[in-house]
Design goal:
By secondary structure, this protein is mainly α. The protein has helices at about 1-40, 45-55, 60-75, 75-105, 110, 130-145, 150-170, 175-200. The longest helix has about 40 residues, at about 1-40. The two termini are about 20 Å apart. The mean pLDDT is about 85.
Length: about 210
């Protein structure tokens, strides 16, 4: 039964990935660019959005390894299991995102539309999907499923959504890049949670 569930999850990720990558190339040059131009200013130098974007480099790690350290130090199996789940979610989503980036090989908006899309620092690696958004939503989804409390879920998704917006404000990604990152991050979080429930707990890794 578990094998069937994981096969279904894998198929969902595969089909979603194919559809999102196709949509990014088929429709991005119209609504995608128009929406981005309305979000991205000529001088995207807001420190708030820069800090929000950069928070992806430390927030997920601080949450995951802080929880893991607490669980190990206090002998708290629930905390350890939550940390494992978040780490798996971020890791799985990140791998899928990187593979997709170098499969689709979509140009960054500022490279494709110089003089129309503005950045405060150049980035030239592939654009689709948004890795920052993907990791943020993978983290938020894991936290939401682990704690099931509004005061955890609300701030987590507010932060993840802010990270996604910051990537458009800074001219780093198209809206479809961000939507793809959001979808893949949520899928990664759901699969990680199912793995945690069905496998980690079965082997007393809790």
């Amino acid at each position: 039964m578990r094998r069937v569930n994981y096969i279904k999850c894998s198929l969902v990720i595969f089909i979603t990935t194919i559809l999102l990558s196709w949509c990014s190339t088929a429709f991005a040059q119209n609504w995608d660019v128009d929406v981005l131009k309305n979000i991205n200013p000529e001088h995207p130098d807001s420190k708030y959005w820069q800090y929000t974007s950069n928070s992806i480099y430390y927030a997920p790690a601080a949450i995951s390894f802080g929880t893991l350290g607490y669980g190990i130090a206090g002998g708290n199996g629930v905390a350890r299991n939550r940390a494992y789940e978040t780490i798996i979610s971020v890791g799985l989503s990140g791998i899928v995102g990187e593979v997709l980036k170098y499969t689709v090989k979509r140009k960054r908006p500022s490279d494709r539309y110089p003089g129309e899309i503005f950045v405060n620092s150049p980035t030239h690696d592939p654009s689709f999907p948004s890795g920052h958004t993907l990791v943020a939503f993978a983290t938020a989804t894991s936290l939401a499923l682990e704690y099931k409390k509004w005061y955890v879920t609300g701030p987590a998704f507010l932060w993840a959504g802010s990270v996604g917006f910051s990537r458009m404000y800074l001219g780093k990604h198209y809206p479809s890049d961000v939507l793809a990152g959001m979808a893949l991050g949520i899928l990664g979080g759901v699969i990680s949670h199912r793995f945690s429930v069905n496998v980690l707990k079965s082997y007393n890794l809790k």
